[in-house]
Amino acid sequence: MRKEYLSCVHTHTEFCDGKSTMEQMLLAALEMHYESLGFSPHSPLPYENDWAMKKEDLPAYFAELARLKRLYGRRIDLLCGIEWDEETPDLPEGLDYVIGSVHSFRKGDIHFSVDYSKDLLAHVVKEGYDGDFLALCADYFELLVAHGAKKQVDILGHFDLFFKYNKDGCFLDENDPRYLSLACKAADELILARPDLYFEINVGGMPRAGRPYPYPAPPVLAHLSKRGARFVLTGDCHSDRQLRMGYAVLESLPQEVIKRLFLLRKEGFAPFY
User: Fold this and answer.
1) Residue 236 pLDDT greater than 90, yes or no
2) Nearest 5°: phi and psi at 228?
3) For a disulfide at 154, which of 15, 35, 80, 97, Cβ 3.0-4.6 Å?
4) In CATH, what number does 7-104+144-271 get?
């Protein structure tokens, strides 16, 4: 049995689309003897939405984290992060780390999010891509590579998020050689541009969407590992109850991946083993 991974730096609270307060998330982490906990609200977006933090709430977010550090900072490493969406033009100052992610983009006149709902995704594939899901993947990866190459990004978020609703391969066979070629090319470009980048092994789609494995899927995770990528395990939690859901996947990860797994503390990234 492998040792426990006592950290999560991809969490969402009531400051964005999460269901718990920051303190509720923190108390749950303390109950499980976490070594570190990072908060990563969705960055403010330049259009109306129901999932991202509001720009005017940033001061309150920083103030609440400062309050929690005063109360609990001797018991756990508390980290101030953000999930920086590709569509957010600027980053606030004062962050400990940044997760760089792509959720939404535009195809012609259609602006959509790849993980909002299965019906929306199916509509976009039909109307925007003439039924070619692989073409949607290509557009996503183009944005992901450009965003992940930015020096401000520390952790690359959910590499293949567009597969959230791909149960039983309803959109695309995840082992399709055409897809794997595309995904591995994107992985190689990211590693070349940012050898210091960390890739998250994100289990969020498992409890919330019934995925059998994390992002990225096993073939891409294996490719990243062979290319020398470094990883962090995250829950992408939207409530305190989700804080450890999916972490049992640690037992099934290849040893080659475990050797390249890191944990973020206030001093920086440290090897898990």
Assistant:
1) yes
2) 90, 15
3) 97
4) 3.20.20.140
